[in-house]
Write a structure and sequence with these properties.
Mean pLDDT: 93
Radius of gyration: 26 Å
Order of helices and strands: EEEHEHEHHHHHHHEEHHHH
Strand order of the largest sheet: 3-2-1-4-5
Shape: globular
Low-confidence stretches: 336-341
Number of domains: 3
Largest sheet: 5 strands, mixed
Structural class: alpha/beta
């Protein structure tokens, strides 16, 4: 079986093909749009470094029956990519193809499904809209401070409220400030449209509908959690899910010294943040629920922040179990574990 290694670039990519003996049989630089046509060949092992273009190329190769290896960026240098301070596309492709021939178990990241990538794109672009709105809002609030004026203005109604406030004072807003308000209004409309899109996608997914039966979990949390895991059977148990999302304590030990640190914060930061927010919501709205009573007992001993983090970790495990068992949230099942620490 041949080994095809691709050093992906933003426009062009370098290809290196070795046969089963490790001999280079073909090298070529192709535009990314022409890469897929190259996969119309006998089954081979296709290796590439993880990057923005990798998953689309991996999908094209997999659909044609090839074996895929998307190598994590963190280990490619140990495979010889960029060795001795000399880095060219041809050298990198050769190094990757050599590692593919020599290592049968070359590490590969999980290649997410097209649905998972679509959800991540949708949510990521929504985050960009929210970030832009925050910058515009902060710019307006900063200008207001220079006018010795600091009213309480809700983020979503800031343009209308500010215009009304200045109109009652017989003043008009400067044109540069008005441009910011127009941008905020447009961003509000686009964020609302993105939220409706996310809500529709979540309610169209049977898995997300089940996850939303858990306290504090809404469409965005359910959708992002499902997209982050992609498929539940990648994980042996709930502990692996919590570790994957960075909700488990870290450790920094050496010799006889043992030190347990705060949570690792590995994995998807937005999903972890949403799970923490879901935990806060559950504590506010469902305090009599079994898992919330468990968290409240922790809060009495360790404080509310640690309790919420613990509840977010438990919630990640509960969502995993709901997905695995295809059963909605049942407080009676959570109740036996709620007697623990």
């Amino acid at each position: 079986m041949d080994h095809i290694a691709i050093d992906l670039g933003s426009r062009e990519s370098q290809v290196c093909v070795r046969d089963s003996t490790g001999k280079i049989v073909h090298e070529q630089k192709l535009s990314n749009l022409d890469l897929l046509a190259m996969f119309d060949c006998p089954k081979a092992i296709v290796s590439m470094e993880s990057c923005a273009e990798a998953f689309a190329v991996a999908d094209g190769a997999r659909s044609r029956g090839h074996e895929i290896r998307v190598v994590p960026c963190s280990i490619v240098r140990s495979l010889g990519v960029g060795a001795r301070g000399i880095k060219t596309d041809k050298r990198d492709a050769r190094a990757l193809s050599r590692a593919s021939c020599q290592l049968e178990d070359l590490p590969s990241v999980h290649v997410p499904s097209s649905w998972s990538r679509q959800v991540k794109t949708l949510c990521g672009l929504r985050d960009a809209l929210v970030s832009s709105r925050t910058k515009c809002t902060n710019a307006v609030r900063g200008w207001l401070r220079t006018q010795l004026y600091r009213p309480r203005l809700p983020r979503t109604t800031l343009p209308r409220t500010l215009r009304e406030e200045f109109a009652t004072r017989g003043q008009s807003l400067p044109s540069e400030v008005e441009r910011q308000l127009v941008a905020i209004e447009a961003l509000n409309d686009q964020i609302k449209a993105a939220d409706l899109h996310i809500d529709a996608m979540a309610r169209a997914s049977d898995v997300c509908v089940l996850l939303m039966s858990a306290p504090g979990v809404g469409p965005q949390t359910a959708l992002r959690f499902t997209a982050a895991l992609d498929c539940y059977d990648r994980f042996a148990d709930a502990h692996q899910v919590a570790s994957y999302l960075g909700l488990t304590p870290g450790e920094h030990s050496s010799s006889s010294r043992k030190r347990i640190t705060s949570i690792t914060k590995a994995g998807s930061a937005p999903v972890r943040w949403l799970l923490v927010e879901a935990a806060w919501t559950a504590l506010r709205c469902r305090r009599d629920d079994a898992m919330c009573r468990w968290a409240l007992r922790i809060a009495q001993r360790r404080g509310p922040k640690i309790a919420v983090t613990a509840l977010a970790r438990k919630l990640a495990g509960i969502l995993y179990a709901i997905w695995r068992d295809r059963r909605p949230y049942d407080p009676a099942i959570v109740a036996p574990t709620s007697q623990g620490r």
